[in-house]
Amino acid sequence: TTRVILSKRPEGLPSDDNFTIEKAPVPEPAEGEVVVATKYISLDPAMRGWMRDAPSYVPPVGIGEVMRAGGVGEVIASRHPKFSVGDHVNGLLGVQTVACVPGDGLHAVDPSLAPLSAYLGVLGMPGITAYFGLLEVGALAEGDTVLVSGAAGAVGSIVGQIAKIKGARAVGIAGGPDKCRHLVDELGFDAAIDYKNEDVAARIKATCPDRVNVYFDNVGGEILNAALTRLATGARVVICGAISQYNNLEEVKGPSNYMTLLVRRARMEGFIVFDYAERYGEAFRDMGGWLTTGKLRYRETVVEGIEQFTDAFAKLFSGDKLGKLVLKVSD
Ligand code: NDP
């Protein structure tokens, strides 16, 4: 197997200095283990957090360990009763071309229902995050105005579309005119705000005349601050992520205008998608249906070759991609 090892903890944006790529023999599976030939590796902003030596909802990746990542692939050997050679599975396979992992952590996926890579995006962790984040944490109601940042990304693009499906207005914030056009013309958002070229606060005011009932935040920082100024009474602010802060070398600054929460009787709540593990089936059922009927669309950006890992990962922070970012490592 070819694998990417975390060799040094990054400060700021991770680079090739932080990883080594090595070849290693594939171990024989022990009882309960499964050997998987990886096809696609998921590149997620959360991985930046896993590189940090700090307490979080999962332990950090250790120095000298294979970088943790979700992935999909095909079973090539199995000593687990649930999986046979030829099955396709989704799970934490790590950044490696062949993974030997406990079968209990894997889920079977069906490549005849959707392309394998979709199980890392719309039918995977990002899609489920959008679903429960908006409907449960955001307590979406028909007629609401939903504002979502990181709107052209894996999670944000689904948030806006679910909002529309449920009879709400959707306004997205994304970087650049092309992404903004994509949101409105292809994904059916009501409006889009280009945070790289427009005055975000002024554009929120213009595009959300009845204020914002749900702000789904993927980016944090200044954009969160701008969104807080336009909350409607009883608004819900869903803290899904804060990608603008992940490579920060300074201390994260709090939103200076959080007092709008008081004035607007609003609440701000964080969540982790894994909290909904027992209810993933509900999300799959709804999202699968919406995909089949064409109500839900998705894009992905595929980078080929495991040796491209660091450059590909950096696209999450430069925004040089559309929709879900994946690394393809074999056919
Ligand atoms: P995306 O596909 O959205 O990729 C990241 C995007 O963030 C980029 O494309 C870029 O888009 C935008 N971005 C990067 N830097 C900045 C910045 N400084 N300011 C504003 N936008 C920026 O990633 P995901 O959809 O996978 O994840 C979105 C968020 O959701 C992340 O914060 C992630 O950590 C979080 N998350 C949380 C989960 C949970 O359980 N709570 C689960 C899964 C994800 P652009 O071109 O528009 O700048």
From TrEMBL:
Domain Enoyl reductase (ER): 15-327
Pfam assignment, any one: ADH_N_2
Keyword terms: Oxidoreductase
EC number: 1.-.-.-
Gene Ontology molecular functions: oxidoreductase activity, acting on the CH-CH group of donors, NAD or NADP as acceptor
Gene3D superfamilies noted in UniProt: Medium-chain alcohol dehydrogenases, catalytic domain, NAD(P)-binding Rossmann-like Domain
CDD domains linked to this entry: PGDH
SUPFAM superfamilies (alphabetical): GroES-like, NAD(P)-binding Rossmann-fold domains
Origin superkingdom: Bacteria
Protein name in the entry: Putative NADP-dependent oxidoreductase YfmJ
Organism from which the protein derives: Enhygromyxa salina
Gene designation: yfmJ
